[in-house]
């Protein structure tokens, strides 16, 4: 069974089609790259999967259960997490505090219990902090845990955002341009981290990225969008040599 499946998905805004007849199957523990020119519909695709945009046509299923009519928080509780192009960290909070917010969907203590500081609430808080520290250790960002998020470099923020997505232990992770603005050294670190997430945690990753070198090296398979439609799909090697891809995306990028 596919971990994530899109079947003839269509999304329109004000009568303008952003996605048209998109069909895609992503198996468990695969890194799926999504590439295409600006305006191809890549971010709309992620938004449709995580519930931020509702398709007008087609279906989206996660582990065999239809999710395209569910709210984003419900989809998140089913094991899917998402990062964004721009930082969504709370700048005034420490990195550790930001990490704990990533567990809000899994906490059980009521607001009253937290306010009263009951034993159950204290134990749950301690468990959340321990899980947050473990996730930071996994991505190699333990040294940043007591710093405020706004004090981090852009590259550090990107890694912390991935850690915050991992803290709730999802089985599927959507990444929207995680490499934007990263130095070459940071790109190499990100490459290794994505592979470790797949290999050590068995997670499925769907990756939007304009850094073609990263996508080609880290992806198990790639889906190419152009004007909201899938124009190619396959291994990095097959996609790299596909005439439609060269014309629609890689060729124009190389020319530029």
Number of helices: 10
The percentage of residues in β strands lies in: 15-25%
- What is the CATH architecture descriptor of the largest domain? 3-Layer(aba) Sandwich
Strand arrangement, largest sheet?
Answer: 6-7-8-3-9-10
First-last Cα distance: 41 Å
CATH topology of the largest domain: Rossmann fold
What's the average pLDDT?
A: 89
CATH homologous superfamily of the largest domain, by name?
P-loop containing nucleotide triphosphate hydrolases
Explain the overall architecture.
With 256 residues, the protein is of the alpha/beta class. It has 2 domains: 1-79 and 170-256, P-loop containing nucleotide triphosphate hydrolases (Rossmann fold, 3-Layer(aba) Sandwich); 90-168, no CATH class. Helix content is 41%, strand content 23%. It is built from 10 helices and 10 strands. It has helices at 42-50, 72-77, 95-101, 111-116, 119-139, 154-166, 184-201, 212-218, 236-240, 243-255, and strands spanning 4-13, 16-26, 31-35, 57-62, 65-66, 80-82, 172-176, 204-208, 221-226, 229-234. The strands form 2 sheets. Strands 6-7-8-3-9-10 form a 6-stranded mixed sheet, sandwiched between helices. Strand 1 and strand 2 (16-26) form a beta hairpin. Helix 3 (95-101) packs across helix 5. The radius of gyration is 19 Å and the shape is globular. The model is unreliable at 109-116 (pLDDT under 50).
């Amino acid at each position: 069974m596919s971990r994530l499946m899109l079947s003839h998905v269509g999304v329109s805004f004000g009568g303008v089609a952003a996605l048209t007849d998109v069909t895609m199957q992503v198996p468990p523990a695969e890194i799926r790259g999504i590439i295409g020119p600006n305006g191809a519909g890549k971010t709309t695709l992620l938004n449709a999967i995580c519930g931020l945009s509702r398709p007008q046509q087609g279906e989206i299923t996660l582990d065999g259960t239809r999710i395209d009519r569910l709210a984003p928080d419900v989809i998140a509780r089913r094991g899917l997490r998402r990062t964004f192009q721009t930082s969504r960290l709370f700048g005034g909070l420490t990195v550790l505090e930001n990490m704990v917010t990533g567990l809000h969907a899994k906490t059980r203590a009521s607001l009253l219990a937290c306010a009263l500081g009951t034993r159950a609430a204290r134990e749950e808080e301690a468990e959340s902090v321990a899980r947050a520290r473990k996730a930071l250790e996994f991505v190699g960002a333990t040294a940043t845990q007591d710093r405020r998020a706004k004090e981090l470099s852009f590259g550090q923020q990107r890694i912390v955002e991935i850690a915050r997505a991992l803290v709730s232990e999802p089985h599927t992770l959507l990444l929207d341009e995680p490499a934007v603005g990263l130095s070459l050294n940071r790109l190499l670190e990100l490459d290794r981290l994505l592979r470790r997430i797949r290999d050590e945690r068995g997670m499925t990753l769907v990756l939007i990225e304009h850094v073609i070198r990263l996508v080609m090296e880290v992806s198990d398979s790639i889906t190419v969008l152009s004007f909201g439609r899938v124009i190619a799909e396959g291994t990095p090697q097959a996609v790299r040599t596909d005439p439609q891809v060269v014309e629609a995306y890689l060729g124009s990028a190389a020319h530029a």
